[in-house]
Amino acid sequence: MNKVIKDLLSRKSFIFSIIIIGFFSILAVAAPALTTYSNPYLPSQQYVAAPYAVPSWATIFPQYKELPPDVSFTFTKYVSSDSSYVTAVNASYIKVVVPPGQTVNVSFPFKWNWSHPYDVVVSFKLLTPSTTSFVVNLYFNGLYAMELCPVPFPVEPAVSISPGKVNSVVFDSKYISPANSPFASELPLSEQPLAAYEFPSYALPKPGTYNVTVSFENTGSSKEVFVMSLPSYSSLGYVYGKLGTDDNGASVFAEFVYGARFDLYLSLLASALIIGIGLFIGLLAGYVGGFTDLSLNALTDFFLLIPGLPLLVVLISIFDVTGTIVNVNKPILILLIISLLSWPGTAKIIRGQTLSLKGRTFVEAAKALGEGNLRILFRHILPNLMGILFAQLAYDVPGVILAESGLDFLGLGITGFPTWGNMLGFATYNVSFINGFAWWWVLPPGIGIVLLSTAFYFFGSAMLDVLSPYKLRGE
Amino acid sequence: MSSTATSEKSVIRGRFHITGLKRYLLKRIAERLVLLFGILVFNFFVFQVLPTLYHINVAELYVPLSYKGLPRSELVQAIDRQFGLNLPLQERFFVYIESLLTFHLGISMHYDEPVLNLIEQRFPVTALLVIPSLLLSTVLAVVLGLYSISRQGKIGDSIVSFTAIMTYFIPSFWLGEIVLYVFGFYLNIFPTNIAEAITRNGVTLHGFAYWASLLKFLTLPILFLTVVSYGVRNILFRNNGVELMGSNFVNYLRARGISDRKIFYKHVTRNAIIPVFTRVGIDLAFLFAGVVFIEDVFNIPGLGRLLVSAAENLDIPLLEGDFYVISLFAVVILLALDLIYPLIDPRVKYE
Amino acid sequence: MIETQNLKVYFKSRDVVVKAVDGVNIKIKEKEIVGLVGESGSGKTTLGRTILNLQRPTAGKVLWNGKDVSKLKGKEEKEFRRQNQIIFQNPYEAVDIRMKVYDIIAEGIRVHKLAKNEKEEREMVMNALREVGLTPEEEYANSLPNQLSGGQLQRVAIARALVLDPSFIVADEPVSMLDMSIRAGILDIFQKLKEEKGKSVLMITHDISTIGYIASNIYVMYQGKVIESGPTDEVLDHPLHPYTKALISAVPLPDPSGRSTLFSTEVREEVEPYNGKGCRYYPRCPFAMNVCKEKEPELTGESNDHYVACFLY
Ligand SMILES: Nc1ncnc2c1ncn2[C@@H]1O[C@H](COP(=O)(O)OP(=O)(O)OP(=O)(O)O)[C@@H](O)[C@H]1O
Ligand code: SF4
Ligand SMILES: [Mg+2]
């Protein structure tokens, strides 16, 4: 055993394969610890940053340097036109007293170090007086972002606010329209539909110091008292995490890690199944021979000859469209179909090796010693097939990964949770002139597939070399 | 002394050779035909028996979910009558086999055109894509293989072999999309839209100009297909060559005083290339099924695309016809291969 | 105890029928070493394998104590296997090189449940190793086949057969793959087997000189047929068949008895291919007559127990 390990470790390609397989296995096993998003395809786990956010380390490249990360904070400083009107209630609330007919502005300054973000969200709690004679406005620097009016159906673009109650005020640039934001309604008509996209770039165009201003206007004849919480600011940036985000602003790293988990899982399972079927058929055909061999060989040829991928596509669409198989879940269906269509190669190789082993003198010697067929199979044939079996197990993994990705890529496979295949599908589908090339999303799953496949190939070859005492010829 | 035995045997062999060949041929043809029949039965099972088993009217599968605004139930009934789909399964089977044998492959529901026409239209496009890349990649495989063998174990060999293995595992649809983006959109070297490529000022080109433009459009996919498919052949060639270089065969040639150059370029190459040819033949047999992704990515209206769209639309007449033609082609090529193989490989006799 | 009756083994490969064994009758009695001589490809191994029921005969049968070996079942078959062993031509191919020497030898003990416990099994294995001269036996028991030389491995193969205490052993050219210097050692083992343990051996060889020392009877095979047989001394001193004479004269060793000079028969260049019906040797036979081309000579008794198939006699 020791010798085997030594022999293996002396091969560079084996070391390479172990490192790669080990790396991805660790990713797969540690997935829950590495990321909080277990299924980034769920809407609830999307928009963790802007769509197409670049990886954070990519900011070392000049073209990404200015891009903002996700930012969120609560304002602590405020300035007002007249400090006697504004007093702190406690660490997070301030009280604003507005004399009749007057307007009091409270400004919250903050420093912004990047180009504009994806969206801007400002939220605070506001206790309003119980009259209807006031208006609260929200400005972003000079931009008139929001108008809050204490009547049920105010004139657009004003938004209603309940008097005498604690209101949750949220300004979210993603949802602004001419109906709820003066900023949008003041834009030229042609630009109004794009208001949500344009607001951040108007509000925070470049690094600098900016103000969010809440302006309290008392239109009545008696003094009004407002209490508001210190607002919190948040915005989704164009820089996120280790691998950025996809078109839904979901974490690509989470997708990649969970994709690796699924791919490894599926491919090992399918390979085991393929080996199982292939070993059974190949051993039976090769060892028993005669008519058994002939018919099993015909069966193998048959499965080898049917066009696998198109058939896969057809079967899955038939199952899908007709709903014939409803209570089997998709991954299991895919697992079964891929295994069922992939075993012939393995069976052929095992049959060939069995045939070659069976004809060897040492097997005849075993027979001469009085060993029965089963004993010969399990003591002499199978152990000598170990190398081939390991190799096949390793060789089949890339095949399964590629087949599964192909299906996912065509949109016929799994879509509900990330796999490398559907990542590739979605990512490449989004490669276009307009979207540009989200390399941080397009490249990882493909590179993952190539590296892992190559690693498994080398792993298999090394196993074959080391574990096959008899140089077996395989095609 | 043993020469007696051998020469005697070869005499006997000589006498039986012709009948042996005939028997071998007949056996092979019979085997392959049985296989083809098996596949047809299987197709029948998938397309007709399976749905019936699940109480689904096959005619519904013949009709796309929406078709020219006509009410679906009406179409279903019409098709039932037209294709005899309400007949019992065993009768339908004979109708099915008869239609395949007479090449009456029916009319595609999705394209509203005879299946045979569709296949005829697309065949040249796929051929124009596959055959040049088949040649190119074989040449590439052999040239790189020769380099590897001559530098066996050195860094150059490692790099070449490693690259070959990597390219084999590249998901073609993925790299295809990237290549298309980089060369087609970003660098704008190749046309990316076939409709634009084969028209000038809105008029479809004809004759030579048509084929030339088509080829120009296909250059990128051809090169791409070459790169993603040379790997297996390269590795096959290299490993065979390396094995041969260390074999007694080469030692024997050396002992006879034949120069290393000649051994390498003549004997080793000739022997190592045999498995490559077999592989190319097998690739050729599965040609149509193999280029599905590339046609999909590069938007090439070839047979692969046809098949996928048939599958996606569940265009059963097209599927049945397409599968039939593909299997027939594969069987014919494999048969041809069975016959040619012993000619190129002296070690294999008609067995 | 073992005899073959008109045994035929034909191989059909491609369209050629190879008559590896073509109507052979041989007999091996108890406590007897019988030699089987013939050039490469004459069907010696095939005959040996068929005798041990490792190859199905095309026609004829092999009788073991009067029973057809191909019809043995269950217990009887097992007993047949235990009592009749074979040692193969190439020791490297005859053992499973993944297994330790100990396991290779113990395999038979386990199959036939000859040992009551592990201790007994160990003892048997060690004894067998000692018997074939592989000492220190502990060291050999733990080694793997690829750590041994051809001669040592052939001894392991012999030990594997001996551990079952068989009564008959087919030794298929047990020394042909080995160096001259170690051949005598291996042959001595067989000599001892006969003398001390009373075993019968069918000693196959293509080198007639090795057999002279140990065999009491000798069969000469040519292309699937026995063409001469008889007591060893008789055959070696008075070879009748031109082929046997050629074999003896071809012996490369310095021959103390000077036999080779006595019968220096040159072998004719093959002038024409075998026509399928005459004596199989006629294309090479310097004494070929017309009748030789027309029909095959039968094996006929010449003098006491000395048989030959040749029209010269
Ligand atoms: N399993 C087999 N299948 C086909 N032909 C066989 C088989 N075994 C032996 N033969 C053929 O039968 C003939 C006799 O072979 P055999 O091995 O018995 O010769 P041999 O006398 O033992 O020769 P050697 O001295 O080289 O061992 C040869 O022509 C050989 O090719
Ligand atoms: S029978 Fe004739 S050919 Fe055959 S060995 Fe005797 S003399 Fe020679
Ligand atoms: Mg032999």
TrEMBL record, chain A:
| Keyword field | Membrane, Transmembrane, Transmembrane helix, Transport
Q: Which cellular component, as a GO term, is one annotated location?
A: plasma membrane
Q: CDD domains given for it?
A: TM_PBP2
Q: Where in the cell is it found?
A: Cell membrane; Membrane
TM spans (from-to): 12-34, 264-290, 302-326, 332-350, 381-403, 409-431, 438-459
In the bilayer, the protein is annotated as: Multi-pass membrane protein
> Residue limits of the ABC transmembrane type-1 domain?
264-460
Tell me where on the tree of life, at the top rank, the source sits.
Archaea
Q: Which family does it belong to?
A: Belongs to the binding-protein-dependent transport system permease family.
Main location per UniProt?
A: membrane
* One Gene Ontology term from the biological process aspect of the record: transmembrane transport
Signal peptide per UniProt: none
- Keyword Ribonucleoprotein applies: no
Organism field:
Candidatus Aramenus sulfurataquae
Name assigned to this protein: Oligopeptide transport system permease protein
Pfam families noted in UniProt: BPD_transp_1
UniProtKB/TrEMBL annotation, chain B:
Membrane-related topology note: Multi-pass membrane protein
Q: What SUPFAM superfamilies does the record tag this protein with?
A: MetI-like
Q: Which domain of life is it from?
A: Archaea
Q: Which GO terms describe its biological process?
A: transmembrane transport
Q: Does the keyword Membrane apply?
A: yes
| InterPro entries named in the record | MetI-like, MetI-like_sf
Q: What is this protein called?
A: Binding-protein-dependent transporter
Q: Which family does it belong to?
A: Belongs to the binding-protein-dependent transport system permease family.
**Can you list the GO cellular component terms from the UniProt entry?**
plasma membrane
Q: Where in the cell is it found?
A: Cell membrane
Keyword Ligase attributed: no
* Transmembrane residue ranges: 33-56, 125-147, 159-188, 208-232, 272-294, 323-344
Keywords per UniProt: Cell membrane, Membrane, Transmembrane, Transmembrane helix, Transport
The family database entries (Pfam families) matched by this protein are listed as:
BPD_transp_1 (PF00528)
Describe the location of the ABC transmembrane type-1 domain by residue ranges: 123-341
Q: What is its main location?
A: membrane
TrEMBL record, chain C:
Could you tell me the Gene Ontology terms of the biological process aspect for this record? peptide transport
Gene3D superfamilies in the record, alphabetically? P-loop containing nucleotide triphosphate hydrolases
Q: Which Pfam families match?
A: ABC_tran, oligo_HPY
Q: Which InterPro entries match?
A: AAA+_ATPase (IPR003593), ABC_transporter-like_ATP-bd (IPR003439), ABC_transporter-like_CS (IPR017871), Oligopep_ABC_C (IPR013563), P-loop_NTPase (IPR027417)
Domain of life of the source: Archaea
Q: Which GO terms describe its molecular function?
A: ATP binding; ATP hydrolysis activity
Identify the keywords attached in UniProt to this record, alphabetized: ATP-binding, Nucleotide-binding, Transport
Domain ABC transporter, residue spans: 2-248
| Protein name from the UniProt record | ABC transporter
